[in-house]
């Protein structure tokens, strides 16, 4: 949510910043801007809209600055317009600041600053923030970093910021609390960014700044200090990310690429962990707390969005395999009530980005009450991976499309492996069943590959329903969370209203909506609730609803009653979500493309929600 980027080195900063902003655009795309030192001037260019609007605006200009900061915004305070776009300048024009996060006490600070003669051109908390720093700097005659340190001790909220100043044209200062910030160390050059994607083409040596640290980069050197001004020795991490992983590689959209990558991303997720032939499953990241998991009296899963749907599937899997009661919670709800958490409870936090503010806050709450937190995270080095006691990475590679696809199937795979391992060690499943599950899991990439072959048929179906105003998705058992996920995918990117429902619950409300204009997607694969779902299809048909059924290969019954059937390969019912979600991802993708929607950057959404 908001992407920030900064550069200090020997090259021209502007193209580096623009390229970096393009890479970060998935984090927010309401407006974009840059600040550069051109001679003695601190020049700001900012514009409502996407990065390309900003580029268009400055296409006639040449910028020579070797230092600069850039921002792509997802509006929190104030409408998305030119004035509210970042960077924000201080009243004197000496400081330019970019910010990802929210300053919660900005109202009081603003009033105070107004009394001290400051004026504001925007509605943002960020403009208050930069003037607050300036006020401390001038009134106490401090260096930029010292003024920043004092300011940060007085602001409440979350931030990742970068600042440049006219007074110190070769100094780049950055700090974080709550929102992510990575520093790239190149040869005689430094980068700062919200994540590693703008950095990776320049250097793979990075430092993930910790909460309340301030980094100062100047004259080819850098230093990192904590909130008490004590120098820190940072851990320099070597990134393994390939540039190709963050490019579209011939696909029209990142979402298309990521949907079709799933046979590989699921295999990557199992690589080195699962050996079906030998009957081995190793999860190195969950070693110290493996016993605690097996002996847990209950598991609480916390997540948001698509990750929450993965958690719902995991609930069924853990309860079935491990016989441990599971509760699945929206992180945002969990943290604002007074949840009962006992020492030794296991909390599994699921997050693609590893930065979701509500999930992070829920983790802190759970930890404070003595729970053990296991993170199931995709982004290496992210905040959630660092605050969790232990965890397992997805290894799905960067996911850039805002609508999550490959992260969902990787989350299911990792959660399944965690449950399987715990169940085997605990003795709630016998060795032959354990081995059978491993074998079936190892076949999933090939089955997903086959499910992707439904693409052409789904494109045809999409064409028929692209103008529908509502969709209903029904599923039961393991496929119920898939129905929720299918509906979420459709509304996120095509803006068609869609609801996911447990198939049997349809009778308690949604059935009233069904008529000949209502497409109903029913996930009706062969499993223990198949017969019941068949009855639900009949109920929809009796009310003239249009049924698009996802069925198991070779089903001869449902094609006789549904309007459209899409076949997916058979697998164990607990693994079916990995396969049955594929046609639903494709359906939402094609409908969104046909409606002319921006698939990768749907309106109002952001990939990484770093505000609460
Ligand atoms: C946003 C994204 C979703 C994602 C959710 C949770 O809403 O658009 O795709 O599922 O955040 O994000 P996380 O990174 O924690 O999985």
TrEMBL record:
Name used for this protein in its record: Glutamine--fructose-6-phosphate aminotransferase [isomerizing]
InterPro entries cross-referenced by the UniProt entry: GATase_2_dom (IPR017932), GFAT (IPR005855), GFAT_N (IPR047084), GlmS/AgaS_SIS (IPR035466), GlmS/FrlB_SIS (IPR035490), Ntn_hydrolases_N (IPR029055), SIS_dom (IPR001347), SIS_dom_sf (IPR046348)
Catalyses which reaction(s): D-fructose 6-phosphate + L-glutamine = D-glucosamine 6-phosphate + L-glutamate
Keyword Nucleotide-binding annotated: no
Subcellular localization, as worded in the UniProt entry: Cytoplasm
Ranges of residues in domain SIS: 289-428, 461-602
Active site: 2 (nucleophile), 607 (for fru-6p isomerization activity)
Record domain Glutamine amidotransferase type-2: where: 2-220
Highest taxon, organism lineage: Bacteria
Pfam family, one: GATase_6
GO cellular component: cytosol
Protein function: Catalyzes the first step in hexosamine metabolism, converting fructose-6P into glucosamine-6P using glutamine as a nitrogen source.
Gene3D superfamilies according to UniProt: Glucose-6-phosphate isomerase like protein, domain 1, Glutamine Phosphoribosylpyrophosphate, subunit 1, domain 1
Alphabetical keyword list: Aminotransferase, Cytoplasm, Glutamine amidotransferase, Repeat, Transferase
UniProt EC number: 2.6.1.16
SUPFAM superfamilies in alphabetical order: N-terminal nucleophile aminohydrolases (Ntn hydrolases), SIS domain
Single biological process term from Gene Ontology: carbohydrate metabolic process
Subunit-structure text: Homodimer.
NCBIfam families in the cross-refs: glmS, PRK00331.1
Principal location listed in the UniProt entry: cytoplasm
Signal peptide (from-to): none
Native source organism of the sequence: Ekhidna lutea
GO molecular function, one term: glutamine-fructose-6-phosphate transaminase (isomerizing) activity
């Amino acid at each position: 949510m908001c992407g920030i980027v900064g550069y200090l080195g020997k090259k021209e900063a502007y193209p580096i910043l623009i390229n970096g902003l393009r890479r970060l655009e998935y984090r927010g795309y309401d407006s974009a801007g840059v600040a550069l030192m051109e001679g003695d001037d601190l020049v700001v260019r900012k514009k409502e809209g996407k990065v390309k609007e900003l580029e268009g605006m400055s296409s006639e200009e040449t910028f020579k600055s070797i230092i600069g900061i850039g921002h792509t915004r997802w509006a929190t305070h104030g409408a998305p317009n030119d004035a509210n776009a970042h960077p924000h300048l201080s009243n004197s024009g000496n400081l330019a600041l970019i910010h990802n996060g929210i300053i919660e006490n900005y109202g009081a600070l603003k009033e105070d600053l107004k009394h001290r003669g400051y004026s504001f051109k925007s509605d943002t908390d960020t403009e208050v923030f930069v003037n607050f720093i300036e006020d401390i700097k001038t009134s106490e005659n401090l260096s930029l970093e010292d003024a920043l340190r004092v300011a940060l001790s007085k602001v409440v909220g979350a931030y990742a910021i970068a600042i440049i100043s006219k007074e110190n044209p070769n100094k780049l200062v950055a700090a974080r609390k709550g929102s992510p910030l990575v520093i790239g160390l190149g040869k005689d050059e430094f980068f700062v960014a919200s994540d590693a994607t703008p950095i990776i083409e320049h250097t793979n040596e990075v430092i993930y700044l910790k909460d309340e640290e301030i980094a100062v980069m100047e004259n080819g050197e850098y230093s990192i200090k904590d909130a008490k001004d004590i120098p820190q020795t940072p851990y320099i991490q070597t990134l393994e990310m390939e540039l190709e992983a963050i490019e579209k590689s011939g696909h029209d959209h990142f979402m298309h690429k990521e949907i079709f990558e799933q046979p590989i991303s699921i295999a990557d997720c199992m690589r080195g962990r699962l050996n079906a032939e030998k009957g081995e499953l190793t999860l190195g990241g969950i070693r110290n707390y493996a016993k605690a998991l097996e002996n847990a009296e209950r598991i609480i899963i916390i997540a948001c969005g698509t990750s929450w749907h993965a958690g719902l599937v995991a609930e069924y899997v853990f309860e079935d395999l491990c016989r441990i009661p599971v509760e699945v919670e929206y992180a945002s709800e969990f943290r604002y009530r007074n949840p009962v958490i006992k020492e030794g409870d296991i909390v599994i936090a699921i997050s693609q980005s590893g930065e979701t503010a509500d999930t992070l806050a829920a983790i802190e709450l759970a930890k404070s009450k003595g729970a053990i937190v296991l993170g199931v995270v995709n982004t290496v080095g992210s905040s959630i991976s660092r605050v969790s006691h232990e965890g397992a990475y997805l290894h799905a590679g960067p996911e850039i499309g805002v609508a999550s696809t490959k992260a969902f199937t990787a989350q299911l795979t990792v959660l399944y492996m965690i449950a399987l391992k715990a169940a085997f060690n605990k003795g709630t499943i016998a060795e032959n069943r354990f081995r059978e599950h491993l074998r079936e899991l190892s076949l999933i990439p090939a089955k997903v590959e086959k499910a992707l072959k439904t693409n052409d048929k789904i494109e045809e179906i999409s064409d028929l329903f692209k103008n529908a105003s509502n969709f209903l998705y029904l599923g039961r058992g393991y496929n119920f969370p898939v129905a929720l996920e299918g509906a979420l995918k459709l509304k996120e990117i095509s803006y068609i209203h869609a609801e996911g429902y447990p198939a049997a619950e349809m009778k308690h409300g949604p059935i009233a909506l069904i008529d000949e204009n209502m497409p109903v997607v029913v996930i009706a694969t062969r499993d223990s609730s198949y017969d019941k779902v068949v009855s639900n299809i009949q109920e929809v048909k009796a009310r003239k609803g249009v049924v698009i059924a996802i069925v198991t290969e070779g089903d001869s019954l449902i094609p006789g009653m549904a309007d459209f059937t899409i076949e997916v390969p058979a697998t164990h019912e607990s693994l079916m979500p990995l396969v049955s979600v594929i046609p639903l991802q494709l359906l939402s993708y094609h409908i969104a493309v046909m409606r002319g929607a921006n698939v990768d950057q749907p309106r109002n959404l952001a990939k990484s929600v770093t505000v609460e």
